Predict the structure.
Amino acid sequence: MRFVVQSKKATLINVLVILFSLSFYIFVFSLIFYRLESNTLLPSQIVLDLKGNLEEFLEPKPISTVLEQMHINLFIFNTALLILSSILYRTFTDKKVKFILIVSGFFSMYFEELSTLAVIYLDDKFSYVVSIGFFVMVFIMTLINSINLISFLTGKIK
Amino acid sequence: MRLIFTIIVLSFIGYILQLITGILIFLEKYTLSPDKITDYVLQKSKIGLLEIIFPHLIFIPAFSFVLLHFLYFIPISKRIIIFSTIIFLSGLLETLSTFFIFLYGSSFSYIKLSAFIFYELGIFTVIFFIIFSFRKYHRF
């Protein structure tokens, strides 16, 4: 009886992880699409979005708006990375690979978010850190998600 | 266990950054004066307030739940359970009191301010408590 219950629980977790992983691809796609549409993907676009341009009559973004955006992004990305890392922990991936993926995922998020303030207060060049940080974060999140999905589909989990 | 601890610490750093931006937004919008909190809230329309309140009503409980559930992995006393409950409820009260100011008047701005300060300090305390307790009880 206990075995049957445990087996059903394992099936439920498998189904949930697979559904979450598939949904996560849609999230990543919508995130990139949003950045493309709002012109905040490339370094030059990021500088223009944050600092504006007097010649084109574009006003700089108010700091309160920037902080609100950071506040929301940090919650979303941090929670997403926490869930992805927790699932990755259950897979049979090499420990060193897991460690590198998790640490680089979180750090790319910190850099991406904090560099937004650095663009405003320090130098325009930090827009490259924002842009690269974003691409690295998205790449790592997608990679972790794919490892999770393949591991759960093939049953290679602890 | 070391990898779990790494995940916890890294996600806590992210949440600390999120809390700091939250504090900066609060200081920028409301300041620490109850009168200014009332003024800011009363300037807004009902729809404008709901647009701020409704996402927070899921984000704050979700954030509190994610953070406080890590206490499950360390030995805790009844006092910690009560403290966690108060932190959870203060976060909720902080959000709801914005609407209460709009409906019932300025006296709720004192509750909003106190709940905000208690929630932020409580969350920081819990974060450091979990990190130090995890190191203490899970030797790796």
